[in-house]
Amino acid sequence: MKLSPMFVCGATLVAVWSLIALAAPLLATHDPYAIDFEALLAPPSADHWFGSDNVGRDTYSRVIYGSRLALYIGLLGVIAPMIIGMTIGLLAGYFGGWVDTIAMRVLDITVPFPFFVLVLSIVAVLGPGIENYFIALALVGWVGYARLARAEAIVLRSSEFVLAARTMGFSHPYILFRHVLPNAMSPVVVYMMTDVTLVILFGAALGFLGMGVSPPAAEWGVMIAEGQIYISSAWWISFFPGLAMVLIGVGFALMGDGLAKMLRIER
Amino acid sequence: MNPLLSVRNLFVRFGETLAVDDVSFDLPKGGALGIVGESGSGKSVTCRALMKLLPTTALAKGEINFDGQDILGASEATLNTLRGKRIAMIFQSPASHLDPLMRIGDQVAETLRKHTDLKGRAIHQEVLRLLDVVRIPEPERWAQAYPHQLSGGMKQRAMIAGALACKPDLLLADEPTTALDATVQKSVLDLLVDLRKSQGLSMIFVSHDLGAVARVCEDVIVMRKSRVVETGKTREVIDAPQHEYTQMLIASHPDRLTLHTPQPVPQATPLIEARGMQIRYGGGGLIDILTKRAGGFLAVKGADFTVQPGETLGIVGESGSGKSTMARALVGLVKPAAGEILFEGAPAKPLGRNRAAYLRDVQLVYQHPYEALSPRMRIRDAIAEPLRRHKLCPAQEVPARVADLMAQVDLDPTLGDRLPAQLSGGQCQRVAIARALAMDPRVLIADEVTSALDVTLQAQVMDLLIRLQKERGLTMIFISHDLAVIRRLCNSVIVMRRGEIVEAGPTGQVFDDPAQEYTRTLIDAIPRLEAAHP
C-alpha cells in the first residue's frame, strides 16, 4: 500500500500532538493551574510565550496540557458510537427484514434533530461533565456509523463472495465477522477520523457553554470562554487554544482523507 | 479510389503504457472492417481514437484521414461537425448511453434537431422512419416509451436509430452485441448486415467474438497486446490463420472445440432429483396476505429434473429464464416455494441445521471471477478457509492441501500470497474452483463460469473442468447462456425459458433434432465461424 501525501501530513500532525500530550510536563514552562497575580493579562513574552490570562495562568502551559484532554475526549468519544453504530448497521444491512426496519425507524427519529442540539439537550438533562458527554455521544453519534455500515452490508450481502461463503456452509456470525466486516471497514474508518475532529470541537463547545469540563480545568473550550470578555484587550487567551484546535482538527481530517485514498483496492 | 477512412501508424499512449502500437488500416466506402481482440488488446481505444474521443490523459500520434479530413489534427469545432453527423458510434451498453428520463422518440429527434434542417412534423416523420429502419415494431407506440420500458435488444436498436439519424457515412460499433442474449445478438447482427446493404453504410465493428465479426464484416484485423497481429479477408483469416495467436483464437472458439461426451452412467437412484420445484421472489407482503394471493414473481414455475452420478447436465436459457435461480436453490441460497430436492433419494436440506454436511457434497462456482473472492483475503487463505472452518484436515496439513489444490487447478504456487485484485480473471476463476474442490464435493455446479472470460481463457477453464471431472469422477451441473459451451461439455441438457423447462434430453439429440421451435432459434443464434461473410 502506498502512503498518500495527505495521510502523511495528517498523521504527522496527529503524532506531534500525541507527543505533546505525552510530554506535557516536560514541555510546559509553568504549572497550568498556578495563579500569579504578578502577571495578570500579560502579553506574549519570553517568560509567558503565549501570554497569561486574567488570573495570571500561563496560556502556553495550559494549551499544552489542554491537548491531553482534547485527545482523550476525541479518541474515547468516538469508540462507543462506532462500536454501537457498526453493530447495528451491519446486522440491519446483512439480515434485512424486521431487524432492518426497527433499526432504520430508530435512526429516522434521531436523524432530523441537529446533532449538537441533541447532544446538548441530553447533557443538559444528565448534568454537565465529560462522562455525560460520552453518554450523549453514544446515544446520538452511532447514527452516522450505522448508516455507513448498513449501506456497505447491503451491497456485500448479495456479493458473490458472501454467497460463496454461504454455499461453503459457513455460519452467519462467521461470514459477518470474516467477510463482511473487513470489507465494510474502510468508509467507517475514514468517517471516524472526521468524527474525532467533530467530537473534539463539540467537546470544546460544551466547555465553552459551561456544560462540559468545568473550570478551572485546562481545556481549550473553557479557555476560549474565559478569554472572551478580554478578546479586545488580551486576544492571546482565546486565540492560542483556538489555533491548537484548528491544528488538531486539520490533522485528523487530512488523515481521514488520506486513508480514504489508501484503502481503495486498485486493480 | 480513395478509401473513406485511412489510418497510418496510429499510436495511443496512456502515461507509461502503450495502448495502441503502430496500427494502420484502410476502410473503403461501403466496406466493413472487424477489429477482434481480447480485453485489453487496444481494440476499443483504436475505435475511439477514430473519433478523437480519448480521455485527456491519452496521447495519440499518427495519421487518421477521414474522407480527406485529418482527424487527429482537427479542432474540436471541426470534429463536432463530423461526430454524430458523418461518423456515428454505438456502444456496448445501450442502457448507459440513453437518457432514462427522455422518451425514445425524443432522443432520436434530438440528434435530428441539432444536425439537420428538419422542423416540427418532418422530424416526427423521420423519427418514425428511422425506428422502422432498425425494425422496431409499431414505431408510433415505442417512440413514446422510456428506455426502461425497452428490452436490451430494443435499446440497442433505438441507439442504432439515433446513430443513423444524420445518415452517417461511417458507423463505429464498439461491442454492440456483447451484453445481449444470443437470439437478440443475432437479430442485431442481421440488422447491421441489412443496414450496410440498404443504407450503404461503412462500418467498423469491434468485438471479442470472431463469430460475430464474421457475420458482418468482410475484412478483419486481429489485435493482441496493443498490436495488430493479422489482417485480411475474414473468410481467409478464419480458414487459414497465419499468426500463432489467431490460430489459438480460432481454435478456442466454441465452434471449433472438439466435442467431449463421456458416456452417461445410468443408475437406479439419480444423485440429484428435483420434483416440482417452484421458486418465488417477493410476495408475502401485507396486501398479498389480505388478498390471499401468493404475490411476488414466480422465477421458476415447477421444474423436474434428475442428475445421474458422473454426468454433466447443462442448463441453458437466456437471461431471466430462471436457470441461475434453480442452481441457487440447490445450494440453499433461495428457498423453493414448493416442490422438493432429493439427494441420493433422500430429501436434501440445503437450508437446515445440517446444511454444512450437504454442502460438502454439492458446491457452486460463480460467474464473476473477481467478485466471487473476498477482496481482502489472500489467495492462500481463501483456499484454506473451507479446510480450516470445517476441519476437513488436521491444521498442520492445511498448507500442503492448499498447495495440492492449487496444483490441481494449474495455479502457480507463488500466487498464494496475492490478493484477488492482483490476479487475472482466469486465475481468479481457478482459485474459486480450487476453493470449491477443497470441500471434496461430489457435485459441482458451475454458474456461467466462463461467460466473463475471453475465449482463450474460456477454453482453458473448460479443459480444466473436463480434466477435473475425469480425475475425480465429479458430477457437474453447468449453467450457461452459451449453447456452444454446453454442447462441448454436457451429456444432457435442459432448455429453460421464462421459468419453465421447455426441452430436455441428451445433448446430441437436443442439438441435432430439437423438438421445440424455441430451442431451434437458440441453436441458430450461435455465432458460427462458418457463417462468415463471403
From TrEMBL, chain A:
Signal peptide: 1-23
Entry GO CC: plasma membrane
Highest taxon of source: Bacteria
Subcellular location: Cell membrane
Membrane topology reported for the UniProt record: Multi-pass membrane protein
Gene3D superfamilies for the chain: MetI-like
Parts of the chain that traverse the membrane: 69-94, 106-127, 133-149, 188-213, 233-255
InterPro entries referenced in this protein's UniProt entry, alphabetically: BP-dependent_transpt_permease (IPR050366), MetI-like (IPR000515), MetI-like_sf (IPR035906)
Positions of the ABC transmembrane type-1 domain: 67-256
Keyword Acetylation appears in the UniProt entry: no
UniProtKB keywords: Cell membrane, Membrane, Peptide transport, Protein transport, Signal, Transmembrane, Transmembrane helix, Transport
Main localization of the protein described in the UniProt heading: membrane
GO biological process terms held by the UniProt record: peptide transport; protein transport; transmembrane transport
Family to which this protein belongs: Belongs to the binding-protein-dependent transport system permease family.
Protein name per the record: Nickel ABC transporter permease
From TrEMBL, chain B:
Pfam families, alphabetized: ABC_tran, oligo_HPY
Superkingdom: Bacteria
Major localisation: membrane
UniProt keyword annotation of Transport present: yes
Domain ABC transporter per the UniProt entry, residue ranges: 5-250, 284-523
UniProt GO cellular component terms: plasma membrane
Gene Ontology molecular function: any one: ATP binding
Protein's cellular compartments: Cell inner membrane
A single BP term in Gene Ontology: peptide transport
Similarity annotation: Belongs to the ABC transporter superfamily.
NCBIfam families, per the entry: PRK10419.1, PRK11308.1
Record-given protein name: ABC transporter ATP-binding protein
